[in-house]
Amino acid sequence: MILVVGGAGYIGSHFVEELIKEQEMIVLDNLSTGYRYLLNENVHFIEGDLGDENLLNRIFSSYKIDAVVHFAAASLVRESVINPLKYYENNVTATFVLLKSMIAHNVKKFIFSSTAATYGIPNTDLITEETTTNPINPYGRSKLMIEWMLQDFADSYDLKYVILRYFNAAGAHINGRIGESHSPETHLIPIILEHLNGERESISIFGNDYPTKDGTCIRDYIHVTDLANAHTLSLNALLSNKIESEIFNLGNGLGYSVIEVIKACEKITSRKSTIFIENRREGDPAKLVASSSKITEILGWKPRYDLLSIVETAWYWHSQNKL
Asked: Regarding beta strands 218-219 and 256-257, do their DSSP bridges make them parallel or antiparallel, or are they unpaired?
């Protein structure tokens, strides 16, 4: 049985939707940013907090847990700067409690949803797992601290882990039942779609004078189901002892500019956007793109969705659920 913490959130629910086809699982989520309706009715759901040691001990004592998959992190960069206490408490301290409970109950396999924010602003066009980690905000630092804990615990307690550092999750499940919903919404594609659906008056581009092909920032967008499949592949590789402990990037290896994303959304919706150019945001690098060659070589993972497909699934879900 697999314990999925944070499984009612955006990425976690897509992983659960895929994993339920082949594994029995328990989802633990406090529903602070997740939604119970995103989960299949057949999923065993427990409402509770990641840092509740008594609850975790009851779960590990009551069920034979073979592995833990961790999605339960606060993940807003700006919020982490305003309220770092929340991020170190929820991300670092609570994960420590989880790992402590796992080790006490001899659960030794762990998949961790990390982030490209651990790299900060790297001085390279293509980010690999060997790129220096240098996070520039509490969110990125909290995730890197968890990575350090995993590496130390692996050395001392025979813990096996996979750390997945991914970039911009986007899109919705092809079945149209689950998709991306944040409050407040901070991600580019749903913001554009909300505007094109009449829910926002306009959209802003923060800087159009970057050294890129159209002057706007380039980012790496990955379909959420591609991310879910990478987690499933990693989990199965750990459970079958195909791998020990690994760190993998998850990206498309190409990158799309803000203008390209807007145009893709306009094409899929057949609607025209109203755009305002704003000043650059402090700390925004011109380009962040990942190489995923390592996970492709070791596990055979490749992203299946291009930008238009990502937007098409996002728009289908949005139009079904937000009208």
From this structure: antiparallel
103 and 193 share one domain? no
Supply the CATH number for residue 301's domain: 3.90.25.10
Kindly report whether the peptide bond that precedes residue 84 is cis, defined as omega within 30 degrees of 0: no
Residues 104 and 213 occupy one common structural domain: no
Q: pLDDT digits over 196-246, tens only?
A: 988 899 999 999 999 999 999 999 999 999 999 999 999 999 999 999 999
Structure tokens at 247: 């760190």
**How many CB atoms lie under 10 A from the CB of residue 132?**
11
State the catalytic residue, choosing from 10, 87, 139, 210.
139
Of 177, 174, 199, 219, give the one whose Cα is nearest residue 312: 174
Query: Which class for 282: exposed (0-12), middle (13-18), buried (19 or more C-beta within 10 A)?
Result: exposed
CA 246 – CA 278 distance, rounded (Å): 40
322 band by pLDDT with thresholds 50, 70 and 90: low
Is residue 161 annotated as a catalytic residue, yes or no?
Answer: no
Higher pLDDT: 246 or 121? It is 246
- The range of the structural domain enclosing residue 294 comes to 188-219+253-321
Where a domain ends, among 233, 250, 267? 250
Tokens for 142?
């909290």
Say how many residues make up the chain. Answer: 323
Residues 6 or more apart from 88 whose CB is under 8 A from it? 138, 142, 145
Structure tokens at 291: 């190489």
Q: Is 158 exposed, middle or buried (CB count within 10 Å of its CB: 0-12, 13-18, 19+)?
A: exposed
pLDDT at 323: 41
Share of the chain above pLDDT 90, in %: 73
Counting beta carbons within 10 angstroms of the beta carbon of residue 244, is it exposed (0 to 12), middle (13 to 18) or buried (19 or more)?
Answer: exposed
Task: State which H helix or E strand residue 221 sits in.
Answer: strand 221-223
